[in-house]
Structure prediction request, 160 residues.
Amino acid sequence: MPTLQQHLDDLDRMVDSGASVAKTRSQIAFIGREIAALEADYSRLAEAHANLQQAHTDLQAKICALEAQPEKKPPEHSVDDAARCILDTLFQNGEAMTDEEIAEIVGYAKSIAHYHIEQLKVTGFLERIRFTGDQRRIDGPDWGYRITQKGRQWILDHAA
Prediction:
């Protein structure tokens, strides 16, 4: 597809070679249509560019508004009675315990204790640890749970 410049060069050659007036006018009309199409494309692109600039400005304003908002505190972790009992047990014991040991002390089925232990892990109040050295269990699991500093602080903050 020839460029606009090539069409203008063709027109120039037509004039230099003495082409008929009809051919010359036809080439001028064709170039005029090409220019009109380019102007329409330019107008459409200029409008799209203006819309994008406005959208950018709007987004910048939203970012500034969000940055100006005070920082929201995460919601307080809710701990039900069963989970509280497990936290208290680990807090008072001071050492890591298996889920079986925890379940036995608090009087829950192992599955119920395990559920609450998992919830407390998600909140960051408990962590799973591997027993090593003197803490290793004979004929027992190598893994247990201990209260984290965050869990200790929660107990201290919510002491009855």
Q: What stands out?
A: The chain has a mean pLDDT of 88. The helical segments are 4-17, 21-68, 81-93, 99-106, 110-123, 149-157. The chain has two domains: 4-68, 81-157.
